[in-house]
């Protein structure tokens, strides 16, 4: 075989083993017996040890020197393998294995502490996670430690640039939120019981509306909704409250956006570095455009209103317009995943600032809860009363995912640009959404973005799809139009 073929064969097995590790993580959060945590941690550590050895195999350096790319896809693959090799060889095998073991254990400790409302039970473990992530960042950083971790999720992004973008977004978002909250329009939450089984059936209907291929996926329950896997095995989860159905519905649509991205990637890229989403920012653009620009639009909520009545009976609302306003209700809530579109990015900005300070050593874990609660009161005007409303609500830090949070807001920015381009190219999207059919939007996204997987760097992926460089203006314009109309501003 040629050097490229040898490298591709090696990479194929590495990607397959990575998928197996992902399945172990899915099982841990969905089906694993509670008492299996210690055993699973050892299993995760063992497979990470094998993966680290493969990613740092000395033969990779030789293959990269000798390999010749025949086309753009092969050239991009070589670039991504080189990037992975250079990064992995700077991280000691001991550290990679220790992180895998600890974060596997930490997830279960976090979940129990969250259920018990006991922050003190989680803090020692989180302190150790932060210590190891600081060590990892120091191994791979050429400057800013946080940038080194951010690069894992959004290659090429810099915290300084994201911070500047968030600063440009913050004032317009707060101003629009204040105008909305001062409006006479005030949608009231639904006051009835929504049985779990009926919610699950409706969640499946919504996932189908956005093109989820059930022959290559499944829907399960977890403490924190997530999407896992890709290709022919792209799974999603949700969570259900019988008093609040929208958390389940829109979490499902959100995760469906992730999964349909993975399902649409060119099968020729399977088991290569091109065979999955190029970055978390781009991934979030797919989940957020499905959840918000499409799923919370008036045409789709009009269809959903009818499905809700069929599933749960009379909702006590004055028609589809009132339902649309309720779905897009703006309020000072505690939970990020259930937040409205105006407050959502402010939730992310809070987390972004706190985790930057944690990694830089400006904030210690022992002081995190107080720092969170103080900042939350300042940004949202309400006081956190229990840890599950505050810093224990998200799973990310227990898993060591520092640098992940800002990609949510970046995904919103990307989604705003994609929505602008898509609606210009496909003016009939709303007609399908009014029938619970997002296939026109899915077709455009598949053709212009999803099929390419990791073929291009993140911003180039968005620019190729849109025909223009992404920035925050399309998102802010969309939010202004939408909420000014709903709240009659």
Automatic annotation (TrEMBL):
EC number(s) given by UniProt: 3.4.17.19
Free-text remark on how the cofactor is bound: Binds 1 zinc ion per subunit.
Enzyme class: hydrolase
Cofactor section: Zn(2+)
Keyword hit for Zinc: yes
Pfam family, one: Peptidase_M32
Reactions catalysed: Release of a C-terminal amino acid with broad specificity, except for -Pro
Keywords: Carboxypeptidase, Hydrolase, Metal-binding, Metalloprotease, Protease, Zinc
GO molecular function, one term: metal ion binding
Active site (record annotation): 255 (proton donor/acceptor)
Keyword Lyase: no
GO biological process, one term: proteolysis
Ligand binding (Zn(2+)): 254, 258, 284
Family per similarity comment: Belongs to the peptidase M32 family.
Role according to the record: Broad specificity carboxypetidase that releases amino acids sequentially from the C-terminus, including neutral, aromatic, polar and basic residues.
Protein name: Metal-dependent carboxypeptidase
Organism: Thioclava indica
């Amino acid at each position: 075989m040629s050097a490229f073929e040898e490298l591709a064969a090696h990479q194929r097995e590495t990607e397959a083993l990575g998928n197996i590790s992902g399945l172990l993580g899915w099982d841990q959060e969905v089906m694993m017996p509670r008492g299996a945590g210690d055993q699973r941690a050892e299993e995760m550590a063992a497979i990470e040890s094998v993966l680290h050895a493969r990613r740092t195999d000395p033969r990779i350096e030789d293959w990269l020197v000798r390999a010749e790319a025949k086309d753009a896809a092969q050239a991009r693959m070589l670039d991504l393998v080189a990037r992975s090799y250079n990064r992995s060889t700077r991280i000691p095998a001991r550290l990679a294995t220790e992180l895998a073991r600890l974060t596997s254990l930490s997830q279960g400790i976090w979940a129990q502490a969250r259920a018990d409302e006991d922050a003190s039970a989680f803090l020692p473990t989180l302190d150790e996670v932060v210590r190891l992530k600081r060590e990892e960042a120091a191994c791979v950083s050429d400057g800013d430690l946080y940038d080194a971790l951010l690069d894992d999720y959004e290659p090429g992004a810099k915290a300084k640039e994201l911070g500047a973008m968030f600063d440009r977004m913050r004032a317009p978002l707060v101003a629009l939120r204040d105008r909305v909250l001062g409006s006479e329009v005030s949608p009231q939450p639904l006051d009835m019981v929504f049985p779990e089984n009926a919610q699950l059936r409706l969640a499946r209907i919504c996932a189908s509306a956005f093109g989820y291929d059930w022959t290559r996926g499944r829907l399960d329950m977890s403490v924190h909704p997530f999407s896992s896997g890709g290709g022919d095995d792209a799974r999603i989860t949700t969570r259900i409250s019988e008093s609040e159905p929208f958390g389940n519905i829109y979490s499902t649509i959100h995760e469906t956006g992730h999964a349909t991205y993975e399902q649409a990637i060119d099968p020729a890229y399977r088991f290569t570095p091109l065979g999955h989403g190029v970055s978390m920012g781009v991934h979030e653009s797919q989940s957020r455009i499905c959840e918000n620009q499409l799923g919370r639009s008036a045409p789709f909520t009009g269809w959903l209103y009818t499905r809700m009545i069929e599933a749960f009976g009379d909702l006590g609302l004055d028609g589809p317009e009132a339902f649309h306003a309720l779905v897009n209700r703006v309020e000072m809530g505690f939970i990020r995943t259930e937040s409205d579109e105006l407050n959502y990015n402010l939730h992310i900005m809070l987390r972004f600032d706190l985790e930057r300070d944690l990694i830089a050593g400006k904030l210690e874990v022992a002081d995190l809860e107080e720092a969170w609660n103080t900042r939350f009161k300042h940004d949202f005007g309400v006081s956190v009363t229990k840890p599950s409303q505050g810093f224990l609500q998200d799973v990310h830090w227990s898993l060591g995912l520092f640098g992940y949070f800002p990609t949510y807001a970046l995904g919103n920015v990307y989604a705003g640009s994609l929505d602008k381009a898509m609606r210009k190219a496909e003016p009939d999207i709303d007609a399908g959404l009014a029938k619970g059919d997002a296939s026109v939007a899915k077709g455009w996204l598949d053709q212009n973005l999803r099929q390419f997987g990791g073929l291009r760097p993140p911003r180039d992926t968005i620019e190729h799809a849109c025909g223009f460089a992404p920035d925050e203006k399309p998102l802010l314009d969309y939010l202004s139009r939408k909420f000014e109309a709903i709240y009659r501003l």
